[in-house]
Amino acid sequence: MHNINSNKSISVVIPNYNGAVLLAKNLPSVYAALKHSRLTYEVIISDDASTDDSVAFIKANYPDVVLISNSTNGGFSVNINKGIAAAKHDLVLLLNSDIKLNDDYFESQIKYFEQPDTFGVMGKIIDEATGKVAESCKYPLPSAFKINHFKNIAINPGIEAYSYYLSGANALVSREKLNELGGFNEIFSPFYHEDLDLSLRAWENGWRCYYEPGAVCTHAVSSTIKSHSSKKRIKTISTRNRLLLHYFHLDSSTLYLWRVITFLSLPFKLLAGKAYYVTAYRLYLQKLKVMRTYKATFKQDAIKKGRYVPFVTVKNNIKTKLDEVLNIQTK
Asked: Which part of the chain is CATH 3.90.550.10?
């Protein structure tokens, strides 16, 4: 099926782990939105060694799905990257299994890809439990060191707006650019901060991320991770990944000061009863050599192609553009 207004095609990539119930609930909305768009499409589900009947459910009810059944559990980045590798179409929708799409979800997003420097776009996410907006346009907040310091802001329909990052729950991205970045950084497995990292690498590579309020979906917030991991483990892994995120994207004197302050804070974290933070720091150190190499390779490649934009510049540019949008909305 082809949309008369676009020659784009879509690969929907859904990472799954023990999500049979979620797939049964939400896959019908994915197909409805794809058919409504009249674009050529495929649906890919990468299963991360589920122990429920996810694989059997998919085979019995959705035989057209490209199913990748993994024998070992690799975590989010590893799992979704296998789905990305199988994708064949122009655009890739990175979609959580706990997302339900509105029928017209794709209609307002395709236009962004007419611009050659568009990496991707995300839509508005509604919390299923409350009916309120759970995620929207990501606005970077002022901070000397904190990268994951942002807020969700409302954008009026019809206004083009950058987004600091694209939520991994519902990001529509260019497959070509996604593959050039190497997909998600698997050092962040099993979960958390990989979507922020991916978007920042896109920005630092000279590309742009957008927010489209007309593309609406519903999300059972964080149900996938929280249902399978303890609070302590989530906190520890999230902290480790936050440290890795900062190491990758900070640079020069800012990176040096951040590393000193982080190290000096460790005794105070222990005194405050945050032993998990010290554990996370140790895990961060174990990954540091690999991340250092990854960072050097990325930066050298972006500089060689004449695209590299430092994180500080990226953040300032996004904030400036969004401030302009907010000023227009208040007039």
From this structure: 9-226
- Token output for 280: 């996370």
Cβ of 129: how many Cβ atoms within 10 Å?
Answer: 12
> Residues 1, 40: contact at Cβ < 8 Å?
yes
Does the reported pTM lie above 0.90?
A: yes
What pLDDT is recorded for position 226? 53
How high is the pLDDT of residue 331? 73
CATH number, domain 9-226:
3.90.550.10
Of 219, 255, 274, the residue nearest 102 (C-alpha):
219
174-199 as b/e, with b when 16 or more CB fall inside 10 Å? bbebbeebbbbbbbbbbbbbbbbbbb
The pLDDT confidence band at residue 6, using thresholds 50, 70 and 90, is confident
Is residue 229 a contact partner of residue 327, using CB atoms and an 8 Å limit? no
- Antiparallel, parallel or unpaired: β 91-95 and 99-101: unpaired
- State yes or no: pLDDT of 202 exceeds 50: yes
Spatial CA neighbour of 243 closest among 232, 233, 235, 253: 235
Q: Which pLDDT band, with edges at 50, 70 and 90, does 3 fall under? A: very low
Residue 185 zone, left/alpha/beta (φ > 0; ψ -120 to 50; rest): beta
Give the integer Cα–Cα distance in Å for 232 and 238.
10
Which region holds residue 157: left if phi is over 0, alpha if psi is between -120 and 50, else beta? beta
